Amino acid sequence: MKEKKTTKAKFDQVSAEIEKRIHEGIYVSAQKLPSEYDLAKEFDCSRLTIRKAIDDLIKKNILVKHRGKGSYVMTQPKIQSGRSGLQGFTEAAKAYGKTSSTEVISFKKINEPADEIINALQLEEDTPIYELVRRRILDNEPMTVEKIYLSEYYVKGLTKEDFIGSLFQLLEEKTEIAYSHQEVEAILVKPELSKLLDVPMGDPLLQVHSVTYALDATPIFYDISYYRSDRYVFKTTLTRYNH
Fold first, then answer.
1. Which member of 5, 68, 77, 104 has the greatest number of CB atoms within 10 A?
2. Residues 133, 147: contact at Cβ < 8 Å?
3. Which of 25, 50, 73 is the last residue of a domain?
4. What is the pLDDT of residues 137-188, one digit of tens each?
């Protein structure tokens, strides 16, 4: 009985380590894993233990086995932002059949907003502006960090806890969202974002500057967000529903 527990613990250990390597980018999408023989030698265990670990990862849709060729890291489909028009993160997650959650990092009034923010929102310099920073998670995997800037009109009376759900739903209690214009560029991940998105330092990210507008072309919010480039592709001008 004791020997079975030891074997099970070893199989769990091997499975967890292979999954960790995939998550860290040591084994990348569509890459063939080392042979069962080589993995058994590396982990100092039997090929049966390796086979059980691989079968576990296949059940989790992390690996796929091609008969006669070996085991491969399963290709992860990218999320297409804008596939169904202008959607919030929560709406897009539902469209893909995935579960989303939100961590509100901060919500505060900015004493001296940058000219970039004032100009994007087309506001007078003395208009109170708030910054909302959130981390968005898809199926328990961090996907994006967003910094959103809004005038006091849209957030008056709201607290940090109010932003755990859909921002679009909150905003559309005051105005109808019509469209958004986005500019996307590639950057290299820095320490803070590396930690928040669980992406290795130096890996590419997609930095997206966007302004979202009402029907009368009034800016509603300005957004600087950081997306994992391994999981996202973008359309740049998006409309809400049939506008």
1. 104
2. yes
3. 73
4. 888 888 899 999 999 999 999 999 999 988 888 998 889 988 888 888 999 9
